[in-house]
Amino acid sequence: MRTTTGWQADGTTTELRRTRLERRDLRPDDLAVRVDYCGVCHSDLHALGSHDPDAGRPLVPGHEFTGVVTGTGPAVTRFSAGDAVAVGNIVDSCGACPMCRAGQENFCHAFPTLTYGGTDRHDGSTTLGGYSREYVVHEAFAHPLPAALDPAAAAPLLCAGVTVWEPLHTLGVGPGTRVAVAGLGGLGHLAVKFAVALGADTSVISRSPGKADDARRLGAHGFLVSTDPDRMAAARDRFDVVIDTISAPHDLGPYLRLVAMDGTLSQVGHLGPVTVDTMDLLVGRKKLTSAGSAGLPATAAMLEFCAEHAVTADIELLPSARVNEALDRLRRNDVRYRFVLDMSDLT
Ligand SMILES: NC(=O)c1ccc[n+]([C@@H]2O[C@H](COP(=O)([O-])OP(=O)(O)OC[C@H]3O[C@@H](n4cnc5c(N)ncnc54)[C@H](OP(=O)(O)O)[C@@H]3O)[C@@H](O)[C@H]2O)c1
Ligand SMILES: [Zn+2]
Ligand SMILES: [Zn+2]
Questions:
Q1: Which residues contact ligand 1 via a Cβ below 6 A?
Q2: How many whole angstroms separate alpha carbon 266 and alpha carbon 167?
Q3: Is 213 helix (H, G, I), strand (E, B) or coil?
Q4: What CATH number does residue 277 fall under?
Q5: Which residues form the Enoyl reductase (ER) domain (predicted)?
Q6: Residue nearest to atom 36 of ligand 1 (CA)
Q7: What is the b/e burial string over 7-28, where b = at least 16 CB atoms within 10 angstroms of the residue's CB?
Q8: Which domain holds residue 262?
Q9: Ligand nearest 214 Cα, by number?
Q10: Are residues 260 and 310 in the same domain?
Q11: Are residues 280 and 165 in the same domain?
Q12: pLDDT along the chain (347 residues), means of 10
């Protein structure tokens, strides 16, 4: 076993504590990665909130990180020591099912191995995430980080980015598409940047009027305050695609009513069960869908697009020792627009 240091849930609170961690010895197709930067995703808060310390599974969050390869197993072909890499929220899959064969490892029928809180397919151990100084990953699930991208600001692309990239891409968003992004947070601000770079007519729907200037700076043409029922009603049927990134349970009705005939609401927040009035779908033949993470080919395509269009996250970079402050502020919606932890304070 190799040892490293990371930030682990302490079991009695939602605080993280600096802890020595074990990483597996390299398998033939593994990379050892020095984690330099790891984004703080709202899913990390959900995971901490539902973590059961008595279940015996340690929790080290972090599933969007960039770093540098420090070691390679003997069968590794795509990377060498010193290469800049990026890792997202899945680190393995069965490789044989129709989803994996179609390059949608994120939908693997045997369930993909999650970067943290997952179960390793070979030794059954619980995966520990990127809030740590080292990660060991199968080379197939590491992506070369394009040199044009700043490694700190690129880290959030690997979860927040791909999660909104895949629906925008598969829904055919491009010039002329009217897109609205609900919730201007980590996922939302990247969805805006992508939609704008794809040439779409892009708007933001937010409960925070103070984000209007930022929305414009990000390239959005419209800004709708979701708590203003009159303005929401006036925007009925206005958008071909609505990407809903809101992190808390909410009624989908008002957002479905903004969708144009035959348009789509793609809801990507982790909300659990939701209730939908089928009349909100019937009137206008609207579609309700979701998405999560991305397959390996789409992740590679997104990174290429980001390098070409200079898309990265707007980040606030903090030393990893301030992780609890970052989580607390994210909980209070006090981030513009993604915290990234600098892991260089860990050894
Ligand atoms: N499907 C996937 O694979 C996947 C991947 C990553 C994340 N997620 C999930 O996606 C959601 C968003 O993640 P994130 O990291 O972007 O979170 P985030 O940075 O906290 O952004 C969420 C945004 O939602 C809005 N919001 C928050 N609470 C709200 C409330 N009570 N009512 C209305 N709006 C509210 C806020 O935007 P405004 O201030 O603009 O209203 C906030 O900035 C989370 O549930 C996360 O777990 C899913
Ligand atoms: Zn995430
Ligand atoms: Zn599979």
A1: 41-43, 46, 159-160, 163, 183-188, 206-208, 211, 245-248, 250, 268-270, 292-293, 330, 333
A2: 7
A3: helix
A4: 3.40.50.720
A5: 11-341
A6: 183
A7: bbbeeeebebebbebebeebee
A8: 161-290
A9: 1
A10: no
A11: yes
A12: 95 89 97 98 95 89 98 98 98 98 98 98 97 98 98 98 97 98 98 98 97 98 96 97 97 97 97 94 98 97 98 98 98 96 95
